[in-house]
Specification:
Blueprint: H1 4-8, H2 11-20, H3 25-32, H4 40-60, H5 72-79, H6 86-108, H7 117-121, H8 127-136, E1 137-139, E2 142-143, H9 149-174, H10 176-179, E3 188-190, E4 193-199, E5 208-213, E6 219-224, H11 228-258, H12 260-286, E7 292-294, E8 299-304, E9 317-321, E10 327-331, H13 338-353, E11 365-367, E12 371-375, H14 388-402, E13 407-411, H15 420-436, E14 440-444, H16 448-456, E15 460-468, E16 473-480, H17 488-494, H18 499-508, H19 511-596, H20 602-617, H21 621-625, E17 641-644, E18 649-653, E19 661-666, E20 669-674, E21 678-680, H22 698-701, E22 707-709, H23 715-731, E23 736-740, H24 747-757, E24 762-767, E25 777-782
Parallel strand pairs: 7-11, 10-14, 10-15, 12-13, 13-14, 22-23
Antiparallel strand pairs: 1-2, 3-4, 4-6, 5-6, 8-9, 15-16, 17-18, 17-21, 18-19, 19-20, 23-25, 24-25
Amino acid sequence: MMNRHYKTLELDKILHMLAEETSIDEAGELALLIEPQLTLDKVEPLLQQTEDAHMLIGRFGAPSFGGISNVTNPLRRAEAGGCLNTSELLSVARALRVIKGVRDWHAHCAGVGTSLDNYFRMLYTNPNLSDRITACIIGADEISDGASRELGEIRRRMRIAASKAREALEKIIRSSTYQKYLQEAIITQRDGRYVVPVKQEFRSQVAGLVHDTSSSGSTVFIEPMGVVNANNDIRVLKGEEEKEIERILFELSGLCAGCATDIIESYKTLVQLNLIFAKAHLAYKMKAVRPVMNDEGVIELKAARHPLIDKNRVVPTDIRLGGEFDTLVITGPNTGGKTVCLKTLGLLTLMAMCGMMVPASDNSRLSVFRRVLVDIGDEQSIEQSLSTFSAHITNIIGILKLCNRSTLAVIDELGAGTDPVEGAALAVAILEKLRERGAKIAATTHYSELKEFALKTPGVENGCCEFDVSTLRPTYKLLIGVPGKSNAFAISKRLGMEDDVIERARALTSSESRQFENVVESLEVSRKELSDELEKARQATLAAQQKQAEAEKALERARIDSKRELDMAKHKAQELAAKTRAQAYAIIDELEQAKKEKRYEAEQKTKFKTGMKALEETADPIKESEQGDYKLPRPLQVGDNVLIFDIDKKAVVLEKPEKDSVLVQAGIIKTRVKLDNLRLLEQEKVSVPKRRERTVTKDVKSLAKTEIDVRGQTAEEAVMSVDGAIDSCVLTNVHMLTIIHGKGTGVLRSRIQQYLRHHKAVKSFRLGTFGEGESGVTIVELK
């Protein structure tokens, strides 16, 4: 039977709730037998398992344990050489399927290590055996024809024999000669043999064997002589069928026996897993959390809720004990929630010690106790002649005998049921003795003497359950550090008690009691004012935090929008660059064509300059927008090094500026650039050779590359680099180009050579020879 103290705190009801969450009967039975663990090193692993199951359910859903039954006894009988029936074999197959399903579910959780991994690794799966059983056994007492070749052949022959017998009987019942002898023109069976119903008076007219008679005696069931042999064949085949079925069942039983121990152990593991996941399911229903455990007697419950009270009605409460004080004395009016606070404290402690999560807020703390001793409720006994007070004191005596430093004592209405003066004195003495033995104590009382004791004694703290006198309703909130007020006079007055009666009652109370109640009342008023101020401050803090969060969100949105705009601008710039590159290639193609046709006249010059002007106008919009108010520090001179800002290209000034532009040379290209698009570079001047002729000289040829290295580039980047190099060679009349692409995987070589095959400026190409780089280079001959 469950410990009486645990039952008083209603732990048995929680365990029944847990049992209802299980899917396996044995897991439900284990749930009812759970007992709180008494050491921290045993409680922590249980809580870790529950928390891990809780996490796995939240991330991956719950595994299915349904449909499995205990197959230990059938498997042990199979191990002993027994033959299992069809139902038992189907139960084994079902168990194997459930075990495999749980194992497969865990496989979907790959990468998430938990304390439950060892349980899942212990599960034994044998899909071949379960498939074999279900393939052979269709249902209870029904074996498939495909269970064995022999069984299929026997049943085929049985069907043929039955067909012959039925054909013979069909001829009889359709015969005009025999129809008048038959009670009904039907074929039926008696003792597994085909017969026809014959009227009693004509039994001698139908030759055959009589197998049965109707209850009225008017009908006999005769097996005609023409079907006796067919029926005999069926009977023989039936015996062979039974033998073959028995052989199949023995074979399947032997297969089960070979892995019986593994299946039994897997079933036990599954029971444990089902219980752990039941704890996690219950935690979800209770909106529970894992408490922070200790073994020092420190309890700090935040927004704790009693799990047996309707979740829509229960009022969360904060409870502390064992830190700054070891004794909590709770006072207040009846029905104010004092007993619920005690039960919440004790029950949540026991739940945690059972490895269950508790309905409270995050970072709640609970302690492991070796004893949780309780005195709650009226336990008077007529048989034992115990009054309420006697029963109460009997329990207290038992608690005093058992308590020590690892004890949580929960006592309701300490010292009640006797003379108030003596009861109060006895209550104080009991608390002192419990504290002397090191117990952690939570007690409720109505005695003012205990309130004074708590105020005067270090390590003892007052607490009260808040009560709203204006509505005559308790708020069920526990206020620690504030003694409670009985409110008897206020409640009586609000309920209609005459004023003179209440005033007479006030006069009869001692001056000390009135003074103490007045102090408590003033403390309560001050507490409420502070509580209101604290609530206002909390609301202001929440509002400030909300505004800060909104501001941060707005800033983040602005950052995102800015990044999006920048990305769009970069994308447009890339499009413009591609368009500019295409136009430049088109202009180069026209120049090449004009050169071939020897018509490079003023008209073509004008067209070329117009094209270059268009390229300038389609420069990078981002660069253009970023030019700002830059001014040249001095007038440009011939030979100055400058930066063409919008294309980020260095150049040399060739002529003195004219109006707002100047002629510069960037690489082999000469172009006129606006002054506000140039940046003066602080470098030495470059001597600019005087132009002798309009044609390109040998010195210009030296600017063209006869070799290009594209190693490390992608295939498309390499093609673009080769294309630019070929254009430079064509413009400078260079007829040989060496492309260094490396050996590697051959991707660059293949892509470049594919491009060269279709280039109109390429005359031929070949791989390098020994000394030239062999297959790591391609030598191109241009037209």
